[in-house]
Amino acid sequence: MMATALPSILTILPELVLATGALFLILTGAFQGTRSINLVNGAAFAILVVAAIATVFQTSETQTAFNGSFVVDDFARFMKVVTLLGAAATLALAIDEMSRQLQKPFELAILVLLSSLGMLLMISANDLIALYLGLELSSLALYVLAAIDRHNAKASEAGLKYFVLGALSSGMLLYGASLIYGFTGTVSFAGIAAAVKGGSGPGLMFGLVFLLAGLAFKISAVPFHMWTPDVYEGAPTPVTAYFAATNKIAAMALTTRVLIQAFGTDAAEWRQILVFISIASMGLGAFAAIGQRNIKRLMAYSSISHVGYALVGLSAGTQDGVNGVLVYMAIYMAMTVGTFGCIVAMRTKDGSVETIDDLSGLARSQPAFAFVLMVLMFSLAGVPPLAGFWAKWYVFSAAVDAGLVPLAVIGFLTSVVGAYYYLRIVRVMYFDDGPARFVPLSGVLRAVLAVCGIVVILFGLLPSPIVMAAGAAAKSLF
Description:
By secondary structure, the protein is mainly alpha-helical. Helix content is 76%, strand content 2%. The chain has helices spanning 2-11, 13-32, 37-56, 74-98, 107-124, 128-146, 153-184, 189-197, 202-218, 228-234, 237-262, 267-288, 295-316, 319-344, 362-365, 367-381, 387-401, 405-431, 443-458, 464-475; strands spanning 63-65, 70-72, 347-348, 351-352. The strands form two sheets. Strands 1-2 form a two-stranded antiparallel ribbon. The longest helix is centred in the middle third of the chain and has 32 residues, at 153-184. It is globular and about 65 Å long. 56% of the residues are buried.
């Protein structure tokens, strides 16, 4: 009996680490209250790292559990490691931010663990039921995280907006899933793929449209992006970083698995939807960010445009396209976490500031800080030879190889437009006069910014580890 259960336990080991760790920390916090804040935060960070290590050392063979509804392959392992590393980095930012606040909710770290658990379930979901369970487990924790700062009206507003719109998107996703089940007679991705081979009628495609609408909300793609700027601005900065990086990576992984494994044989149908969403996201993200003065709102529109770029690769529907998506999301995580780390560091003696003009003169007062932020802005803009350039190179190349040349051209043009607001931040730091003098960076912030900066700079020189891992992960889906 034990020998039979052992493979299944090893298959879900990272999820077990997160689940048991979260339950233990809930009890610890409930009994000790605010006295346990340091223990809970430190243990939560360690649990995320242990889960990532457990994921790395899982067997390279494809494994399933729970009658095939949960799958662990190279694709799942790659995206889980990226997700867990992003969660650990953003939790480190949150711990650093909380160290300066009077109110220190121990629940934040636990909610990060529970949300990360949901994200891992999303990445390994192999049927529509597991998809929805992972999505809701992640979302319910995220709603609370957005409003975790209970004394901030903007945070409460952000949490309420996210909850209401999230409930609407979940209803659309469920309706689409029910239609897909009704027309195929199965919830498993393999069964759906077999049904699609025989030809997909209008009813099945109608269900796919609703399913994609729910997933588009999770990745904040146009036209389901309306919550993003307000939630990003209102939520605490480390929580916003968690939304922008970790949550988006898991949702993109789920979208990729659904389209490639369940509907891969009917790519010509859903490609039209993805091309529209991609163009709309790239265009809105590029132009809407130009007038933003709040740097968190600017990063919200930036994240929308980057989702559009990632969808360029997915629109190809090929192994190279999925490889481009994986490389893009890994690099995007490093760029986003580093940028939000810089935003967390925008702290004066009077408190945190968030406007771009507050960066005036930063290059003269804190040159190292300004240099890291400049590198991250250049990378987000796609300036070679930084990592952001290669991220776009992989997705645009896949689109060209798949015959989607106009989509790649539109992506390039919107990148040029988007470069304006990234370079504007660099101009403000280096050429504007101002009293920008933030409090010295903590050791945690220095470490996060250093790691993200190194990844962005060195990827062009040493791309092989990430590219090879992404290639193996993409191959496992086909």
